[in-house]
Amino acid sequence: MMDIRAIAPARRRADRAARFVLAGLALISALLLAALVGALVVKGAPHVTATFLTGYPSRFAARAGALPAIVGTLLLGLVSTAAALPLGVAAAVYLQEFAKPTRITTLLRASIGNLAGVPSVVFGILGLALFVRAMMLGRSILAAGLTLGLLTLPIIIVVCEEALKTVPRSMREAAFALGATRWQVVRHHVLPYALPGMLTGAILALSRSMGETAPLILIGAAVYIGYLPTGLGDSFTALPIQAYYWAQDARTAFHDLAWAAVLVLLILVALGNLAAILIRDRYQRRYKW
Amino acid sequence: MIALTSLPAPRTIHLTHAVRGRLVAGLGERAIVLVLFASASVAALATVGIFLTLLLNGVSFFRDVSLAEFLFGTTWAPDFFPREFGSVPLLKGTFLIGVGASLIGVPIGIGTAIYLSEFAGDQLRRVLKPAIELLAGIPSIIFAIIAIFVVSPIVEDWFGAPVFNALNATIMLGVMVVPIITTLAEDALRAVPREIREGSYALGATKWETTWRSVVPSASSGITASVLLGFSRAIGETMVVTLAAGLLPTMTLSYLEPSQTITAFIANRAGGDLPTGSVEYLSIFAVGTVLFVITFAINVIAQYVLARQRRRFG
């Protein structure tokens, strides 16, 4: 038999080494975020000037601005969320409150789950074939917004379902006991409490759609827009698209603009995520079930 | 009690009101359920719609190009004459970069997940976890810009690679899949019941022995799913590979040379104005179908593996 005292130090060393290595890996993960944000601020911040924020694209880097791209990004976020939110909430309510565990329900759930895993560029292909060409919406804000809406739909459904799940059973049962129909229960007693959680989902979807690039390339966002969009049928550009084209420019002065554009984009997306987190926190504190 | 005794006298009227209310509600209710069901179906039909769009246009593509050439051809040259549509170089690029990114992302992601779930204190966890989740929310164009302007010069400097090479994109995608793998793997590890750990401690195992021999094997399905979904994300990513990997559909297996992925081809080709129905336009759908089928298969397997884990631990 082996002597326990002979093994113990080796095992303790292995334990310590593992702890060290794992902590190192976790540290790398955390540092990645810091490094990314740091690089963006260092490279982008000096170029986020008043000209950049309020100007229009130009052949001259010093005069080029991103106003149409910023407006485009915000509009795309709004259009896609406006299109996807009602659909997503309704789908979540159906799946969570009404659906019986049938084969159709299982199929619905599986398809929605798979939709979440479809690469964003493939959504772009769908948007190009369906909205731009078949429905003849053209390379418009509406076509792009609807495409992004489909892309964010699974996110909205998942978050809304989670929100509905947090409303306790007893709420529903109390309403049922008073003779309310299922829809009355949902409408008057479940939805009001799930609303803040659903809002979180909407904001997350908004953030996500503002950051997408690949689908917009497929839809055909314009490279050079000298005016602000006035309607949903207008052509558009967006911050990620603008950054994409600036980064490909041979002149390095435009690379600085690309950095500035992605920094502004990061700020917009981060504000969205922060708002979502704040709403979630407030709401969690308000209702303690 | 007070409320009950002070009810107005003609109770029957109240009843009929209530009954009529319920009848009307019953009709409206059916309509509402129908609308809700339709909404859920739209979301589900989107998946079918995507597949049909890809497939129908993809089929038109094969009127001009033979399936054998597409599947086994080793030259992808949609712009040169004679045009060639052998998709192997694109598949090679997709898998070369996807596998490489997983080799980078998996150890970091799973290591982080194990640390967060088994070793980190509550306070540290509360800081680390949101930081990693925020990483998941960063738009891909930002990673692409960093790949081309920060990573590329370093790779050029250290390995003497050209500006555009597969390694740029591989490194960046490796970073991008970390949060996906970490989040899913950590969920799987935390789902392992306490008793399994306590049983191991009771037998005299150290923390690491417990983690490695009892907890990790118990969470193996969930960890496998996290790796699959990370890989699926890596091969579906577009912007990083479009900007940083070079747009050459090469057959090389070297990370230090340019490669083109399916996604990069799609994004690059769609940038211009392609006439509907032309072979170039349809080629987007053909390779798109391939990409969709691959990611779909991986996702389905991952869901299946996850369901198995859930069955095990409730």
Please provide a written account of the structure.
The complex is a heterodimer of chains A (289) and B (314). With 289 residues, chain A is an all-alpha fold. Chain A is 77% helix and 0% strand. Chain A has 11 helices and no strands. In chain A, helix 1 (4-44) packs across helix 11, helix 3 crosses helix 6 (141-166) and helix 3 (67-98) runs antiparallel to helix 8. The model of chain A has no long low-confidence stretch (mean pLDDT 88). By secondary structure, chain B is mostly helical. Chain B is globular, with a radius of gyration of 27 Å. In chain B, strand 1 and strand 2 (84-85) form a beta hairpin. Chain B has helices spanning 2-5, 11-64, 67-72, 88-119, 122-136, 140-159, 166-190, 194-202, 207-218, 220-236, 239-244, 262-270, 279-313; strands at residues 76-77, 84-85. Helices cover 78% and strands 1% of the residues of chain B. Chain B has 13 helices and 2 strands, in the order H-H-H-E-E-H-H-H-H-H-H-H-H-H-H. Chains A and B meet through helix 1, helix 3, helix 4, helix 5 and helix 6 of A and helix 2, helix 4, helix 5, helix 6 and helix 7 of B.
**Rg for CA atoms of chain B:** 27 Å
Secondary structure tally, helices of chain A: 11
pLDDT below 50 for ≥5 consecutive residues: which ranges of chain A?
none
Number of strands of chain A: 0
Overall geometric form of chain A: globular
Oligomer kind:
heterodimer
Quick synopsis:
The complex is a heterodimer of chains A (289) and B (314). Chain A is 77% helix and 0% strand. Chain A is mainly alpha-helical and 289 residues long.
